[in-house]
Every structure is written in structure tokens, then in C-alpha cells.
Amino acid sequence: ADWVKRATTSGVGMLKRFANTLGAYRSGILAYYDFDRLSTGPLEGTNNKIKTLQKMAYGFRD
């Protein structure tokens, strides 16, 4: 987009950083909208619960 080019060539550091971050995650951001707003959030939540249970079970014997 035109504003991204202008942002990266501007002298504003935070704006340049924001534009670069959007560029780095561009494909993932667009894929979110291409695939009916599919998110890995629920899966990451499940993985977090599994890791928490593993930490809680540390020291127990089989």
C-alpha cells in the first residue's frame, strides 16, 4: 500500500516500526480474513492447559 511506503521512508521511528511489523505479518493477517476468520487461539489455549497440567503433575509417579 502507498501509506506503507510513505511510513517506511518517513522520519518517524514508531511509524516505521509499525509499518515493518505489518509487513512481516502481512501474510498471516490476510490469511485470517481469507479463511473465514480462523484462529489458532483455541488450540493455543488447549496447549497451555496441557502444559499447566504437566507442571502441576511434576513429581508425581506413574
From TrEMBL:
Superkingdom per UniProt: Bacteria
Residue ranges of every copy of the Transposase IS204/IS1001/IS1096/IS1165 DDE domain listed in the record: 2-62
Cross-referenced Pfam families: DDE_Tnp_ISL3
InterPro entries named among the record's database cross-references: Transposase_DDE (IPR002560)
Protein's recorded name: Transposase
UniProt organism field: Candidatus Kentrum sp. TUN
Classification lineage: Bacteria, Pseudomonadati, Pseudomonadota, Gammaproteobacteria, Candidatus Kentrum
